[in-house]
Amino acid sequence: MAQIQIKNIRKDFGDFNAVKESTFTIEDGEFFMLLGPSGCGKTTTLRMIAGLELPTSGEIYLDGEEISQLPPSKRDIAFVFQMFALYPHMNVRRNLSYPLVSQGMARRDVKAKVEEVAGILGIQDILNRPVGGLSGGDRQRVALGRAIVRDPKAFMMDEPLGALDAEFREHMSEELRALHDRMNATTVYVTHDQLEAMQMGDKIVVMNNAVVEQFGTPQEIYDKPATMFVADFIGSPSMNFLHFEGTVGDGAESVTLGGEVMHVPRTRQGASGKLVFGVRPEHVTLSDSGAYRGEVLASEYLGTTQIITLDTPNGELKARIDSAQVAKVGEKVGLGFNPKTITLFDEGSGRALRSDLNNEVLAHV
Amino acid sequence: MSEVVLKGLSKSFGDDVGIADVSMTIPDGAFVVLLGPTGAGKTTTLRLISGLEKADAGEVWIGGRNVGSETPAQRDVAMVFQQYSLYPHMSVRDNLAFPLKSPILNTPADEIERKVAEVASVLQISHKLDNKATALSGGEMQRVSIGRALVRDPSIYLMDEPLSSLDAKLRTDLRVELKRIQANLGATLLYVTHDQIEAMTMATHVGVLNEGRLVQYGSPREIYENPNSLYVASRLGLPRINIVPADVFGGMPDGVTQIGMRPEHIQQGEGQEAEVQRVEHLGDQARLHLMLKGHAITTIADPHTTYTPGAHIKIAPRNPLCFDADGARIS
Fold first, then answer.
1. Could you give the ipTM of this predicted complex?
2. A276-287 pLDDT, tens per residue?
3. Beta-carbon count within 10 A of B154 CB
4. Which residue of B has its CA nearest to A200?
5. Which of B19, B138, B188, B210 is the most exposed, fewest CB within 10 Å of its CB?
6. Nearest Cβ partner for B220 among A234, A301, A304
7. How far is CA B123 from the centre of its chain?
8. Which residues of A touch B264 (CB under 8 A)?
9. For testing the chain A interface, which of B165, B170, B175, B281 should be mutated: the one with the most A CBs within 10 Å?
10. Which residues of A touch B195 (CB under 8 A)?
């Protein structure tokens, strides 16, 4: 299969800049997610890799060969559209055969290949059925099969599960990921759903406003967000931002929040002015004591855990705590923050300050 | 607000059972969520209470009176539907005032103004009152349609998946908001959804429906921690509860044929050896997908777990839920 290198690609549509100079590498066999809100440029990026759009500038390498200006048919990349795009008048076998027949493959080879792919997808028994009567899952498997039969170097998928209801989507995403693990095909997958990206992806690129905000493994992006956008977009509930004004020296190990000293990972750069103290909900603890206090506004029971919404001197905050712990609405409680996990941001630029926590990750952003 | 009581309520549509023999009490001031998949009878129940459908058998009591012979208007219920249906040519203010201008209610003008202002402030749309309804975002439109129910002071609010057409972030915000509003008003609310998160987070009482029958009714915590059947156990919890035959781990009492283990109720480091199939790092936790004697099992681990596919790990159930062959709970 294939490694795909993206170097400084940019795309303009007239005056509109859809993708700013972006650089990242998709390693051979990776399940790679392009994640971001609608209009962020993720689909345009995918279409440039597939050859459905030509970049305004920059290069794309497929296994070392520069392909950015080649037509799609010369790239050996399969694009899986919204998966329901099948030929309705053909049966499953002919839907699967079609890409091979149109390539001029010998009839016998086509048959063998279709059988093989049907085996991989577990759809041998429906090969002679018309696609019209198939269940949603089977239609999706057939659409996938039509991409797989060509043995492409890589697969491009644009929100393939977007149209499905939640339960079925969970099932198909597991199936898709399991299929990937069997075939180890390099896959680039576009989604706006952060949970889907975290669950399925080996690596994630987070895009916003035509810019790559961060690129890394799911856990890295979650623990060490490079920007406030990433911190907010990833995680549910997302990272809490406690706003404060102050000065943080290079090498500082604490900040002052609402008059209280809070420990943070040792900083590797100084900053002053409007700053943000970023803490994930599961790294907030509630106690009777504790000088930094908040008032409980709401609690949401989730089984083993509960989400508590609190009002603090620095803004609203959500905590994820054990559901056995009692937190009454209206009650004032002490708040603690796990110091090893804190990310500080500069509010103006939205960028994370470098610290012992994130220095390695930010070095290549 | 009023208590609403359903007694042996049944409704079929031809051969299809809508609901069958549903009895429940919705206490005054309660936030009751009916949970179930499509076709379980959730919407039918709402429509029977509101009077949009006529029951085949059984009774609906609202505030101590049997409303069987009353029209929807006489029953004095307020409904909110999944698709916000606002009057597009009217301003937000006029949309909110509309239900109060009904000839049946005959509300004085200053009272209408006061009510609209109050509800707009609760829903944080005061600054949008003079906007056209069509000039609002999806979330604002849904808040207006909820507001149109809130301006009235009905016996009960009936809501049919009002948040399901909104995006995830907005849904989360409105969930908290709706619960806060309900608690502040002391309103009686019956809310139907197929979304278990909505049910768990908002409800004071959850009713689980299966094929038209009310199979369990209790607080979210009771339903989650003490389900009376395999069906109910599977409706709540993400990732879903793991169900395996009792003999996989052994040591279960007689009559137990299957056990249910919530992903967070699996002990690691002792018991049976399972193989790690896949590890998902979700940030706040890692999900381990395991295979044990041909059974797929999901459990959770520290987000920074170092397990990789192919690794072996011993697991044992911790306080498993036991079920008989029919899926009924054995305690």
1. 0.84
2. 999 999 999 999
3. 20
4. B280
5. B138
6. A301
7. 21
8. 303-304
9. B281
10. 166
Inter-chain CB proximity B175 and A300 less than 8 Å: yes
Interface membership of A325 toward B (CB under 8 Å)? no
pLDDT of A365 > 60? The answer is no
pLDDT score of B304:
94
Give the one of A198, A237, A298 whose C-beta lies nearest to B282's C-beta: A198
**Closest residue to A235, CB basis, from B183, B236, B284:** B284
- Retrieve residue B228's tokens: 């009376």
CA gyration radius for chain A? 24
Q: Which of B168, B200, B283 shows the shortest C-beta gap to A218? A: B283
Instruction: Please give the Cα distance from B280 to A354 (Å, whole number).
Output: 27
Tell me the residue ranges of DSSP E strands in B175-292. Answer: 189-193, 205-210, 213-218, 242-245, 258-261, 266-281, 286-292
CB pairs under 8 A between A and B: 70
Say if the Cβ atoms of A300 and B281 lie within 8 Å. Answer: no
Q: How far, in Å, are A254, A296, A315, A326, B173 from residue A330 at the CA level?
A: 30, 5, 16, 12, 19
CA dist B27 → A300, B5, B20, B207 (Å): 21, 8, 21, 13
Enumerate residues 230 to 249 of chain B having a beta carbon within 8 A of any beta carbon in chain A: 236-237
Backbone torsions φ then ψ of A48, nearest 5 degrees: -70, -35
Other beta carbons less than 10 A from residue A250's beta carbon: 12
Question: Least CA distance to A309: which residue of chain B?
Answer: B176
Instruction: Work out the pLDDT band at B296, boundaries 50, 70, 90.
Output: very high
The reported pLDDT for the residue numbered B295 is 96
Examine residue A237 and say whether the peptide bond preceding it is cis (omega within 30 degrees of 0): yes
Helix (H) or strand (E) holding B98: none
User: Looking at CA atoms only, how far is residue B302 from chain A in angstroms?
Assistant: 11
Which of A 65-84 lie inside 8 A of B, CB atoms? Answer: none
Please give the Cα distance from A47 to A45 (Å, whole number).
Answer: 5
Closest CA to B98 of B154, B147, B161, B163: B147
Average pLDDT, chain A: 92
> What is the distance in angstroms between the Cα of B20 and the nearest Cα belonging to chain A?
26
Peptide bond into B239 cis (omega under 30): yes
Is the sign of the CA dihedral A60, A66, A71, A74 positive or negative?
negative
> What is the helix (H) or strand (E) element at residue B31, kind and residue range?
strand B31-35
From the list B176, B236, B281, the residue facing A303 with the nearest CB is B236
Q: What percent of chain B has pLDDT over 90?
A: 74
Listed residue (A202, A186, A118, A107) closest to A154, CA to CA: A186
d(CA B260, CA B243): 5
Nearest residue in chain A measured CA to CA from B281: A219
β-strands A271-279, A305-312 pairing: unpaired
- Nearest CB neighbour to B280, from listed A199, A281, A297: A199
What integer pLDDT is reported at residue A182 of this predicted model? 85
